[in-house]
Design brief:
Elements (H helix, E strand, L loop, with lengths): L2 H13 L6 H37 L12 H10 L11
Helix pairs in contact: 1-2
């Protein structure tokens, strides 16, 4: 059940408390919480992936870590980021 349908069901139940389906409402609440948890996890994973990609790009930037990292490592980073190796062959 979507969050919208769940809140509509709660509002409807509040108007006529004699017809409350408490187990059904609790199951719907649990489903909504699970859905929100998966959404938050997906956002957290996307944020972590973005942070990791930004960190890896620093290895390619000569003004950041680029000069401190060997060429083959920079090529490995490029490969991980889906870019073409430009400084050497695969190890």
């Amino acid at each position: 059940m979507s969050a919208m349908k769940f809140t509509d069901a709660l509002r409807g139940a509040a108007k006529s408390p004699d017809s409350w389906d408490v187990p059904g409402l609790l199951n719907d609440a649990a489903d909504s919480i699970d859905h929100l948890r998966r959404y938050v996890d997906a956002l957290s994973n996307a944020e972590r992936a973005g942070n990791l990609a930004a960190f890896l790009r620093r290895f390619l930037n000569p003004e950041e870590l680029g000069h401190a990292v060997p060429a083959h490592v920079r090529d490995d980073v490029r490969e991980v980021l889906g870019m073409e190796r430009v400084e050497g062959s695969t190890l």
